[in-house]
UniProtKB/TrEMBL annotation:
HAMAP family: CysQ (MF_02095). It is a peripheral membrane protein. Its EC number is 3.1.3.7. It comes from Chelatococcus sambhunathii. The gene is cysQ. PROSITE patterns: IMP_2. Its cofactor is Mg(2+). This is 3'(2'),5'-bisphosphate nucleotidase CysQ. Belongs to the inositol monophosphatase superfamily. CysQ family. It is found in: Cell inner membrane. It catalyses: adenosine 3',5'-bisphosphate + H2O = AMP + phosphate. The keyword Magnesium applies. Keywords: Cell inner membrane, Cell membrane, Hydrolase, Magnesium, Membrane, Metal-binding. Gene3D superfamilies: 3.40.190.80, Fructose-1,6-Bisphosphatase, subunit A, domain 1.
Length: 282
């Protein structure tokens, strides 16, 4: 069965180089002008989404020719996954609405998954060239489009922070709220609540700039896997409200996730477990 290299940092850097190339295609689409269509689920898909996905899929196929790629815009045509199979989860342009609106908080997300768990991942913001990379450990760096991709010697280690129950910073989606998330946050009572778009919320958790990111509304596996790899490598957890680690590769729901919470401090995840479970009940 196909697998990945043992060096998770090297694998993550390979994914970062591919994300770097995809980011350049996204910026080219913005500069040249692009068309947008509405998908069956009501979400937008732009020419930039397709250009980035085409680049990523091709690059992954060349680097890992026997490993399946599950990517947002082509997931319906993907071959079934075997139990324990290694594969990639790709969101070629997370935050398409922000991209179409002229914003900068859109990302490229790529994760490598083995036996249902992400072992390496990258989140890249093409607009400013930032990268958050999760492998054996977690790192941040900058590599603008047009220059070289991220290199190992330029990586800056990042870690989640210990949580102070009286001084929590919670993150919420800038565009996708839901009553269960609101109930959880009301019960948790963080000192500060911040909004952010796309997968950037995982980056803030991993870098020790925030403590918790709950999402009880619907997401897809490619929205979360790279962030899970990053937060986990930085010392945190991404779990269900019942405290179970997320797993990836189940196709029965069309690659949909259930509710999840990203925790910077595993001790906070344990202490707040009753609040998390109660957040699912009206």
């Amino acid at each position: 069965m196909p697998s990945f290299p043992a060096d998770a940092d090297a694998l993550a850097l390979t994914l970062a180089a591919i994300a770097h190339g995809a980011g350049a295609r996204i910026l080219e689409s913005r500069a040249q002008g692009f068309a947008t269509r509405t998908k069956d689920d009501g979400s937008p898909c732009s020419d930039a989404d397709i250009a980035a996905e085409t680049f990523i899929s091709g690059a992954l196929a060349r680097a890992f020719p026997h490993v399946s790629v599950i990517s947002e815009e082509s997931a319906d045509a993907a071959a079934p996954l075997g139990e324990g199979q290694a594969f990639f989860l790709v969101d070629p342009l997370d935050g398409t609405r922000d991209f179409v609106a002229g914003g900068s908080e859109f990302t490229v997300n790529i994760a490598a998954v083995v036996a249902g768990r992400p072992i390496a991942g990258v989140i890249h913001t093409p607009a400013d060239g930032r990268f958050w990379i999760g492998g054996a450990a977690a790192y941040a760096t900058t590599a603008p489009a047009g220059g070289p991709p991220p290199a190992r010697h330029n990586l800056r280690p990042i870690r989640t922070r210990p949580a102070s129950r009286e001084g929590l910073t919670a993150l919420a989606s800038a565009r996708h709220g839901d009553p269960e998330t609101d109930r959880f946050l009301a019960a948790l009572a963080p000192r500060e609540r911040r909004s952010a778009s796309s997968a950037l919320k995982f980056c803030l958790i991993a870098a020790g700039e925030a403590d918790v990111y709950p999402r009880f509304g619907r997401t897809m596996q490619w929205d979360v896997a790279a962030g899970d790899a990053l937060v986990s490598a930085a010392g945190g957890l991404v779990t269900t409200p019942d405290g179970v680690r997320l797993t990836y590769g189940d196709t029965t729901g069309g690659f949909a996730n259930g509710p999840f919470i990203a925790w910077g401090d595993p001790a906070l995840a344990r202490d707040a477990a009753p609040i998390a479970a109660a957040g699912r009940r009206p």
